[in-house]
Amino acid sequence: MAKTTSVLGRSEARSGLMLISPTALYAVLLLAAPLGTVVLYSLLTGGRGVITWDFTLANYIEVWTGPVYRAIMLRSLLVALSVTVVTVAIAYPIAYFVSFHVQPSKKSLWLFLITIPFWTSYLIRVFLWKVILGYNGVINSGLLGIGIIDEPLTWINYNVGALVVTLAHAYAPFAILPIFVALEKIDRSLLEAGQDLGESRLRTFWRVTLPLSMGGVIAATLIVFIPTIGDYVTPDLIGGGKLPMIANLMEVQMLKINNKPLGSAIAVSAMVIVAILSVAFVMVNRRFLGPAK
């Protein structure tokens, strides 16, 4: 009997392995192999198209000590954090309203409306914000038309604020949906029990709703923060090329200067920063909000 069970277990394990092997091989070829190649390149010596197989940490030293590289990394980090805070701050009230104040029969319609921005290309949405915030754009034209200003405003475009607004709009739906799912999973009887015990709506939200929905908040934070810090198109278009971020710096090193080892070191450094901050987000959630769940 035990032998038969063992044989069946091995057979099921073999079947499961055969089932996932194509996907695993695909993931290895398209994710692990390129990542390993980037790490390898970052340890090589070279520049201007010439690469020698002499392993060194000089590329990382240059990235972490060079004032230009540090300034661009810091800007990328600040922009990504600002976008994340703004996006989650906008997304949570919307998700809360849809979850708690919209009739169940109409929630699907609201979610449908929230996903409408996905119907258009990300690039088109960025271009639209360039038109809205431009020197002769919608905002300046409207303010000039009603006589509030005498000449177009120059500070609403090509700055960090414009980047944050554009990126927050682009990633808002990604933040709304996981928060909404987390709010939907909350047992409404817990909220009623809190109010029955004399808690105000605000304290019930702070002590019950928010902790129980923090899983969705952390998910939204990671979903927004990770792609934002590596965004390439928005700094180039909305920033007018004057506010490069990490991805723009990598593009310059990889394609224009043709210094693949240094560009790879920048890419690996960015991945390490994102990984550390992502783990920190998750640990904060578990440390301070775990017991409330």
Model description:
This protein has 293 residues and is mostly helical. It has one domain: MetI-like (MetI-like fold), CATH 1.10.3720.10. It is 76% helix and 2% strand. Strands 1-2 form a two-stranded antiparallel ribbon. Strand 1 and strand 2 form a beta hairpin. The longest helix is centred in the first third of the chain and has 41 residues. The two termini are 43 Å apart. The mean pLDDT is 83.
Sequence-ordered SSE layout with sheet pairings:
Elements: H1 2-42, E1 45-47, E2 50-52, H2 58-65, H3 67-101, H4 104-114, H5 122-133, H6 138-145, H7 160-184, H8 188-196, H9 201-229, H10 233-237, H11 246-256, H12 260-289
Antiparallel strand pairs: 1-2
Membrane topology: Multi-pass membrane protein
Pfam family, one: BPD_transp_1
Transmembrane segments: 24-44, 72-97, 109-128, 160-183, 204-226, 262-284
Mean pLDDT: 83
Report the CATH C-level class.
Mainly Alpha
Range of strand content: under 5%
Q: Give the strand line-up of the largest sheet.
A: 1-2
Stated plainly, the CATH topology is called MetI-like fold
In the CATH hierarchy, what is the architecture at level 2? Orthogonal Bundle
Helicity, as a percent range: over 70%
Low-confidence stretches: none
Class per helix and strand makeup: mainly alpha
Total DSSP helices: 12
Number of domains: 1
Q: Can you write the helix and strand succession as a string?
A: HEEHHHHHHHHHHH
Number of strands: 2
End-to-end gap: 43 Å
Overall body shape:
globular
Name the CATH homologous superfamily. MetI-like
What kind of sheet is the major sheet?
Answer: 2 strands, antiparallel
Radius of gyration: 24 Å
